[in-house]
Each structure stands twice: as structure tokens, then as C-alpha cells.
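dumping this here so i dont lose it again. seq + smiles for 2-acetamido-2-deoxy-beta-D-glucopyranose
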Amino acid sequence: MATSNVVCALVLSSLFHFLLAPVLSRDVHALEKCGFKAIYQLGDSIADTGNLIRENPLSPYASFPYGLKLSKPTGRCSNGLLMIDYIARSAKLPYPGAYLNSARKFSGGRGGVNFAVAGSTALPAEALSSKNIVNIVTNESLSSQLEWMFSYFNTTCSEDCAQEIKSSLFMVGEIGGNDYNYAFLFNKTTEELNALVPEKRMKKKIEFAEVIVFDSESHSYTEGGCN
Ligand SMILES: *[C@@H]1O[C@H](CO)[C@@H](O)[C@H](O)[C@H]1NC(C)=O
Ligand SMILES: *[C@@H]1O[C@H](CO)[C@@H](O)[C@H](O)[C@H]1NC(C)=O
Ligand SMILES: *[C@@H]1O[C@H](CO)[C@@H](O)[C@H](O)[C@H]1NC(C)=O
């Protein structure tokens, strides 16, 4: 079970605290005011709702006890729902379906799409393997999820994609924890790890993520919720 411990290691970022504050408040639909039309999620096991198990049906998340409270295993690394589900529920949207779930594609992906894959890394698999760090779970990464997302929008958006996705919530992460998990698993030192982060490339990724997040912002958001 070492693998699942690595993959399911929980890293809670301040973003989640920020977003979850109103969700955990008494108003169960606190995010409804935001008027989100869809939620698009990128990330790892913290957010995967069924992508990894479609790539690898033998993954432990395809069996109980995962999904015990949902009456069947769904690919969530949890016995029940994940943060993204509660966020969707609070926004009064359906749970964003897993990108690799063909049933979701069939239904048009209403409410958004979840591109997160358990075990995925921020850096591309090739960048890690060039340093002798192997992703033992999946070869998906932030880059490959972004490619999925662009090809999804290419096939679903009509002319003005920016306009169409304007009122969407983009959840970028948590992602990057597994880069460290695998590096430590392959006995890299902290110095080797620091050298691994190609600042320019990450900066570009982060700037890009900010662009899509800000592009889609149609409401001002404070710690108290949407205005
Ligand atoms: C990742 O890709 C490499 C090279 O194509 C392949 O050998 C390996 O099995 C893949 N790993 C996973 C977990 O899919
Ligand atoms: C999306 O469409 C544009 C314009 O047709 C094209 O340049 C781009 O490569 C496509 N991207 C993906 C990921 O399919
Ligand atoms: C990492 O180090 C441990 C302890 O020395 C060793 O047992 C293990 O095989 C090493 N792992 C790799 C991938 O080299």
C-alpha cells in the first residue's frame, strides 16, 4: 500500500481554506451567488473523481473501501466525496465528471469537467524521468491535463471560447506534491529536489494559470464569499 499512501498524502493549500470557508459555513449553497456555470478542475488525488481508474482499472481506488459511503468506488481517493464535490454542491452545480469517463462526454459535461488524475505531477513525466525519478502511478501531469483541457474546449466551444468559459471556476491544483513524493521515493536529496524546479517553466505555467483564472473572473470574491 506504499503507493496509495504516497498518492493520497494530503496537502491542503491555503487556496482550499480560502474557497472552503464559505462552503463550510452554514449556508450550504454559499457559492451559488457566484453564478458559476461550470467548474474545471486540474490536479492530483486530492481532486481526481475517476480519471486514474479509467487509465488503470487495477488501481486500488477502483475498489472498496474507496467509495464506501458512495455505494460504489468512483475513483475518488476517499470513502466519500472530495472538496471539489462540496464546492460544486455549494455552487449548485453537478459534480464535475471525470474527463476520461466516456459517459460524461456523452452527457456533454454539463457543470464542468474534472481533469485531475491521482498520482500526477506538476512537471511532465519526461522531465522527472530525465532525473531518474519515475512516476510509478501515471504519466499524467499538469501539462497533459492542460492539453486535455484545451482539446476539450476546442471541441466544445463555439466561436468565442473566452466568452463561453467566462463564468467558470478553474481549480488549478493542488498539484506538485507528488513531484516531491516520487523524488524522495527515489532517494533524491533536498538539494537535488530544489534543482529540479525549473523556475522559468513553472513561472510560465503559473502565469498561464493566473490568466485563465482572471479571464474567467466575473465576480469579485472575498473571504466572505461572492459579492
Ligand atoms: C509511463 O511511460 C513510460 C514510457 O512510455 C512507460 O514505460 C511507463 O510504463 C508509463 N508508466 C505508467 C505508470 O503509465
Ligand atoms: C485547438 O485549436 C487551435 C485552432 O484550431 C489549434 O491551433 C490548437 O492546436 C488546438 N489545440 C488542441 C489542444 O487541440
Ligand atoms: C532508497 O534508499 C533505501 C535505503 O537506503 C533503499 O532501501 C532503497 O532501495 C532506495 N531506493 C531507490 C529507488 O534507490
